[in-house]
Automatic annotation (TrEMBL), chains A, B:
InterPro entries, per the entry: DUF7411, Rossmann-like_a/b/a_fold
Pfam families hit by this protein: DUF7411 (PF24167)
Recorded superkingdom: Archaea
Name of protein: Asparagine synthetase domain-containing protein
NCBIfam families the UniProt entry points to: PRK14561.1
Length: 205, 205
């Protein structure tokens, strides 16, 4: 039972990957890149620290350009992030070897998040199961599990050593002469998963 | 990390209980009864076969009477079942020793299912975390996990050896001279969890 899991290296997608292993799934982590930057490597590093297989899925630059248009139109990143996540799920689900796709989206997220019709449409169009281990968990539960499982580094920084869509989206905005700070809310803290807190907690399979 | 898990003895609430143990939670199964019947015993039997602790939570008969009114008004059981589930979650969450409540509600269920505002309201009013392990899983995923885990007996029967709300709701309808078949859709098959398929799959904790 192999699951292809969209992975940014962050706490949520790491927790979701762990849950999948606890349910008996074999998990392959997949990080999306549009080929502009190699920030997918941060996800690859975290994947290695956690002992997961990791792949990169390259999507066409045109998709990122379209997302940038949406973000500029809205002066806000939410619809652009949602657009990118839907395209990422479709690209992953369309690969012939993929039977199950998964991600770290949460109950309390506004984006990215597929509603029920979009969820069923994804499953039906690509004949896959779409699994979201965190969808039924609130922030308290996610926090208590994350704190138990992971060594997390929190830094005050604008430097984004992350592999989520936001990094390449900010980059292409800058390429187009747009200051990302006019579109993205300013963040002071960011966290990065550095490894398992206790080796035995991993206890895969 | 103790979770109080609303439990009917069916496949969904059994699968959800298993997932909670795989996430490292200690799980206490709780079956609701309105004191009319002792069909909660079927949940107790299944709980024992699966090796879980099990309790009964008695709710006032007035709640069931109100649900019967709703079902009669609607000529359909959905709103009544939803009403009962909300009252059951509130009663469980209001107990002083309860910090986490859980159930087996699924992504593809129409009822019972709390939307996001109701979910947050439950958590805020009673200061609990509400965990739904199956919410991010579709029917394919639930089927493959259930088939791997449980010995299930499927019978063609109107006899309901079950501990869900429907049984006492049908009973009180009959007490009021109403034929439940005028309200509930007719079901030909029912399933009951009889035990673990492989002892080692349980592997709790």
């Amino acid at each position: 039972m192999l699951v292809h899991h969209l992975y940014s290296g962050g706490k949520d997608s790491s927790l979701a990957a762990w849950i999948l292993t606890r349910l008996g799934y074999e998990v392959k982590l997949v990080t999306v890149s549009f080929g502009l930057l190699d920030n997918w490597r941060f996800a690859g590093e975290t994947a290695e620290k956690l002992g997961f297989e990791h792949d990169v899925l390259y999507l066409p630059r045109e998709i990122l350009e379209k997302a940038a248009e949406i973000a500029i139109r809205d002066s806000h990143p939410n619809n652009a992030i949602q657009f990118l996540h839907e395209r990422a799920l479709e690209a992953l689900a369309s690969l012939p070897e993929v039977e199950r796709v998964s991600d770290g989206t949460r109950r309390d997220d506004r984006v990215p998040l597929l509603d029920l019709p979009k969820t069923r449409s994804l499953e039906d169009r690509f004949n896959v199961a779409y699994v979201r281990p965190l969808l039924g968990l609130g922030y308290k539960t996610i926090r208590e599990l994350t704190e138990r499982l992971f060594i997390v580094e929190i830094r005050e920084s604008e430097e984004l050593e992350k592999a989520d869509y936001e990094v390449e989206l900010r980059h292409i905005l800058r390429e187009n002469g747009i200051d990302p700070l006019t579109i993205f809310p300013k963040k002071h803290y960011q966290s990065r998963v550095m490894g398992w807190k206790e080796k035995e907690i991993r206890a895969r399979g």
